[in-house]
Every structure is written in structure tokens, then in C-alpha cells.
Amino acid sequence: MIPYCILAIEDDSDRAFMTSLYNRYGRLIYHQIFRIVADTWAAEDLMQEVLIKLIERVKELRAKEERQLVNYMIAVAQNKAKNYIRDTKAHREVPLEENINAPLRAEHPEDIDMRLIAECDMTSLAQAWPHLSERSRYLLEGRYILEKSVGQLAEELNLKPGSVRMALTRARKEAYQVLQNEIDPQI
Q1: Residues 50-71: pLDDT tens digits?
Q2: pLDDT tens-place string over residues 133-150
Q3: From 17, 73, 101, 167, which residue has the greatest number of CB atoms within 10 Å?
Q4: Domain ranges of the chain
Q5: Which fold has domain 1-94?
Q6: What are phi and psi of 164, to 5 degrees?
């Protein structure tokens, strides 16, 4: 059954696109949310919020490649669920390793080199991710996966944009240092 928020889209092309997206990835999005919140009612509500967020960015979604699109939807779902958990003061750890390899599939045989490079990078990052502070993970995910602006992050964290830029710089340095230690612990 297609959610009402999708059926309410006025543009036929956008409605068809979102219907197709929901049919292909609705279960994946719901699973990502439910893994974090572990509450059926909350997961249903968050699913609607995620769909509304995706509908607001339908033009951007159309421009993304399949892999980017899947990663984006996963990140939006996880971010909404984590914000819900943070706001309700509940907590349940989500292991990053489960999500790392899922969207990395070569669509064409000539993509194999790019896929291998991406898998290597993602494996390194997955190993380093747990060693980063929660704040660094939140900032890096928000900025580079969810593609939020510095202003949006500043608003979410109740900080000034300059403070967020500095925090992002520190988060990148922390990630780089952890990656360096993972690659060559002698450094």
C-alpha cells in the first residue's frame, strides 16, 4: 500500500518516481529505522517523516546514481531514527559495518575498478568509524552523506556556523588520524 504522502504529490511524474522508489526501497528504509528505534509505532511515524523528507528533495534524488540514492536514503532513515532516539533519551547502538557493503554493487562490468576502490575505502572507513567520537560521526555523516549545509548542522546543534565549520575540521582531522593509524600503526 502506497503511503498517503506519496499519493498526495501533485506532479504525476514525481508521484510515479516516488512510488517506484517506495516499492523498491520502502522495506530497506523501514528496516534501517526499526533497527534503531525497535518500536513499530515510532518506526511507522519515522517512515512517514523520511518519505516527506525525500519528497521535498525529489529533484535531487532524480539526479543521483543508484548507489548514491540508496546511501542517501539509508542515511536519512538512520539520521531521523537517531534524532528520535536522541530526543526521547533512549539509546541503542547501530553497528556501521552492517551497512557498509550493501549499496556497493557494480551495475556494469566496467565499474568493477571503481567498486573495488570504493569497497577498499569503505572498509577502511568502517574499521575507523567506531574509533571516532559520536560528535565526529554525527557531523561527518550529516555533512557528507546527508549533504546538509553548515547552516543546517548549526541549527540542529544550536551552534554558530563558524563553530560547526571548526568542528567539521576537527572531525576530518580525527578521521584522517584514525585512518592513518589503521593503515600504518607505526606512524
Answers
A1: 999 999 999 999 999 988 899 9
A2: 888 888 888 887 788 888
A3: 73
A4: 1-94
A5: Rna Polymerase Sigma Factor; Chain: A (1.10.1740)
A6: -65, -40
